Amino acid sequence: MKKRLLPDIVSVNPSNYDDFVQCERRYLNKHLLGVPASDPGSPNATGLLAHDMLRLIHDTGSCADTKHVAGVLEGHDADDDHIRQLVARHADRCPQKDAGGAAHEHTFARFHKLPPPMYMATARIDAVWVHDGLLDARDYKTGGLHYHRVADVPSAKVQAFVLARAAERRNLQLRLRYEFLNPDVIDDPDPWEPDRDDLATIEEELRAAVERMRTIDDWKGVAEENLCSHCVYRSICRDSAARGEAAWPVLSATS
Amino acid sequence: MDGDAEAPRVTTAMLKRADDMCRRKLAREHAGGKRLANRSADMRFAVSNRLQEDARLAQAELGPPRPEAFVDPKDLEPEQRALYRAAVRGYLDAFGERPGRATDLGWQTHLDATGVDLIGDPGIALELPDGRRELRMLHFGSRHANTALRDPVQERVALARTAEWAPDQLTIVVADLIEQELERVTPELPRARDEALAWINERVEVVKTLAADGRARAGADCSGCAFIAGCEQFRA
Fold it and tell me: Are A19 and B55 spatial neighbours (Cβ–Cβ below 8 Å)?
């Protein structure tokens, strides 16, 4: 039996939508074919550790409590200057003291049924705070700044789409903020408070993307050197503009 | 021990994740698999399935694997073919000198104690020239960073699924063909299998209890869920 590339209900999340917008072939390789990376990507160990530490710090106390923060970092082998700096940068902007509710590393889901095609959007959100009539959603960033407005980020559209339903149910206004923890980034990009028109546009944009997925038969790569040179499939991609030897260990074996 | 397909099902994923799963999804997968569900995609398994089928063919007769059984899958995308070729190289590097004859263990084993079918491909089962049994559990480079090669739940399931075929002796070889990692373990039988079955039976009872709850919970499990139709979380 011929294998199926797409399910009846396509899953859309911030990561796969971002890949689809940047390069349809990367989306194919990573999210539909499940091909493991053939080339190294950006190291992200520090970012993952910072996210984990912030979740633990808020789950068990306050980021404003320096003794508590030090205890959590020490207890998880994360007590170094860089991580301390990232956490301190967050604490300056944390709304915890004003918040009536919060959730960390929570996955939200929203289903689009009509008009077809159907899709299921999900997004794991780093932190959500309820304060001052807002559902204040934060995405912690430890890398560089690429956009000046959250509204322009493809993955933010998926986040806004799923969060909007949660905000609506609680009669709150959604605010999506990208919180840059890296001290090299002086100002965060403008937060986004999408209105009804924005949300209707997003829903249609995502629907149109899924419709396109269903019609593509060639899944062309962008073949642009500046994008391909950072791609984790640059050595094996059919359309790569930065071809090289795959870094898979098995290919370097001499036996 | 092979039973009818109509018994409730338990998979390795359920044994691992039942406590965190959406109860509605768990209940439906436990009750009947995905026969009446929205169809899911399976192209991501094309390379692993193809390589395992070819590896079984390569040792259909007693002897080392025949390299010519691994045929370039021209119907797949170029990136999948690159992965397939790398995996073949990894497979022959790891097992090319090791004679044996492949046998088919099927996809399920009925567990009498709990009345469920344990579902899943345990790996490539080989009968070695001296009569010993070897099970090859393969990875294809897609493990998350810092994830161990060996998975204790998969190994327990493998012990349960091989009970009739390898009652007294079994060697489990876990290999990541792309990352070139390999571990070989020889469980102490029957003690290891008794412990595995006891653990599985305990977890099956947990699965049954959680599945009986059946309440839907919107979240990470919605992605890829085959049972969205009719879900109370997404009614208009």
Answer: no
